[in-house]
Amino acid sequence: MRLKVRRVYGRRAEGRLLVSSEPISFLGGVEPESGRVVERSHPLHGQSIAGVLLVLPHTKGSSVGCYVMYSLARHGTAPAGIVAELADEMLVSGAVISEIPLGVCEGAAGRLSELSGRRAVLELTRGYLEVRR
């Protein structure tokens, strides 16, 4: 499966897909030292975002979340890449300062929900996310 993705930052990333049906708050919702989602009510609670291609509708919460993303990168627990349905200022600035490839694809979380766990390539220079079988 291949989805068209608009490049926001970065060039390429690959890894296992981790698809979230709900927005993520990086501030208080993700532990930078481990990369684990710690927000108890979140569907990804307990799972690590380290090294994955994270697909989500958008982020929520404070603008301080971009610094949490930077902390994730410094700890080696950041996602390999992110595909969001909507990229707000916090997500864009966090991706840039953390050097996390970021793309936008409308409806991605819903279309990829059943494919979480599969390997994928995010090729932002060519504008696509390809999910492997």
What oligomerization state is this entry in? single chain
Spans of at least 5 consecutive residues with low confidence: none
Per DSSP E runs of 2 or more residues, the count of β-strands stands at 8
Rounded mean pLDDT score: 96
CATH topology: Glucose Oxidase, domain 1
Number of helices: 4
Give the CA-based shape.
Answer: globular
| Class of secondary structure makeup | alpha/beta
The first-to-last residue Cα distance is 8 Å
Any idea of the CATH class? Answer: Alpha Beta
Number of domains: 1
Strand content: 25-35%
Instruction: Sketch the major β-sheet.
Output: 8 strands, mixed
How would you explain this protein's 3D organization?
The protein has 133 residues and is α/β, with parallel strands linked by helices. The protein has a single domain (2-131), classed as Phosphohistidine domain (Glucose Oxidase, domain 1). Helix content is 23%, strand content 26%. The chain contains four helices and eight strands. The chain has helices at 26-29, 65-75, 89-98, 108-112; strands at 2-4, 6-9, 12-19, 53-56, 81-84, 102-104, 119-123, 128-131. An eight-stranded mixed beta sheet has the order 1-8-7-3-4-5-6-2. α2 (65-75) packs parallel to α3. The longest helix is centred in the middle third of the chain and has 11 residues, at 65-75. The chain starts with a strand and ends with a strand.
